[in-house]
């Protein structure tokens, strides 16, 4: 069995509140490999502090990732839209990620194009009760939103995302990664387990969708973020992915 771990699991591991043995006991004792991706290093790039302090914290994060994953790295190749399993040191991945600084800035600007007021107006127009929606299963969420497709120009959730990709000027390299990212944005706009708004919440959701995408190549996605878990379940249902979403304590 293979498991992909969310960034919050790495942090707990780093703070000595969680061990690999605890994950095996609580989730599945047959897990043989834990994986990480570039999304973990993109999040690590947001670590703040004075130069010496930041360097020290980054080294600590690299070591934590290495220790829990044994450097099992999932690499996404843009052109082929394929995922490859590599053995890679986290610091090497970090160096690659931070070399493309313009991409980080571009990603931040893209996900911040819709403000919170516009999202709330959208929810009001749909007449969707977020609290009620949060009690729905993944299947019920999809069926409920699809039942309102007349408000979306007659398009289902999948069709909405496909249309958005079709209209994007640089869609030739788009794949499942982008579909899941678009779905997370749509679910947040609708109000399903929406993130509490902050200057960084939109960008953080991009990481959540990235972790979800990478985890789709494993048997388990382990996350202690309930909002991410619930959105991931919708994504996996919608795209027919069998990855099981679970917390470090074994909760679904």
Could you state the order of secondary-structure elements as H and E?
EHHEHHEEHHHHHHHHEHE
Number of strands: 6
Largest sheet: 6 strands, mixed
Contiguous uncertain segments of 5+ residues? 101-112
Q: Helical percent range?
A: 55-70%
Quote the average pLDDT.
87
**Can you list the strand order of the major beta sheet?**
4-3-2-1-5-6
Work out the radius of gyration: 18 Å
First-residue to last-residue Cα separation: 18 Å
How much of the residues is beta strand, in percent? 5-15%
Number of helices: 13
Instruction: Using the alpha-carbon principal axes, give the shape.
Output: globular
Give me the secondary-structure category: alpha/beta
How are the secondary structure elements laid out?
Layout: E1 2-5, H1 7-14, H2 20-26, E2 33-37, H3 38-44, H4 51-69, E3 72-77, E4 82-87, H5 90-99, H6 101-111, H7 116-126, H8 130-133, H9 138-146, H10 157-167, H11 176-190, H12 201-215, E5 220-222, H13 226-238, E6 244-246
Helix pairs in contact: 1-4, 3-5, 3-12, 9-13, 10-11, 11-12
């Amino acid at each position: 069995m293979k498991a992909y771990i969310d960034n919050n699991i790495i942090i707990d591991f780093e703070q000595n509140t969680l061990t690999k043995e605890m994950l095996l006991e609580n989730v599945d004792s047959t897990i043989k490999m834990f994986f990480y991706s570039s999304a973990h290093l993109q999040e690590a790039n947001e670590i703040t502090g004075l130069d010496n302090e930041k360097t020290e914290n980054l080294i600590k994060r690299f070591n934590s990732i290495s220790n829990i994953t044994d450097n099992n790295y999932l690499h996404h190749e843009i052109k082929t839209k394929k995922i490859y399993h590599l053995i890679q040191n986290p610091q090497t991945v970090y160096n690659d990620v931070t070399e493309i600084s313009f991409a980080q800035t571009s990603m931040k600007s893209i996900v911040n194009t819709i403000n919170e007021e516009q999202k709330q107006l959208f929810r009001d127009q749909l007449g969707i009760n977020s609290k009620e929606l949060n009690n729905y299963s993944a299947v019920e969420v999809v069926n409920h939103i699809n039942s309102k497709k007349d408000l979306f120009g007659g398009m289902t959730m999948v069709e909405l995302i496909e249309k958005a990709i079709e209209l994007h000027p640089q869609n030739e390299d788009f794949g499942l990664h982008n579909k899941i990212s678009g779905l997370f944005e749509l679910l947040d706009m609708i109000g399903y387990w929406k993130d509490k708004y902050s200057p960084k919440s939109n960008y953080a959701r991009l990481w959540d969708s990235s972790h979800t995408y990478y985890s789709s190549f494993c048997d388990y996605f382990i996350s202690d973020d309930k909002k991410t878990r619930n959105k991931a379940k919708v994504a996996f249902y919608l795209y027919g992915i069998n990855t099981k979403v679970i917390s470090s304590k074994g909760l679904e």
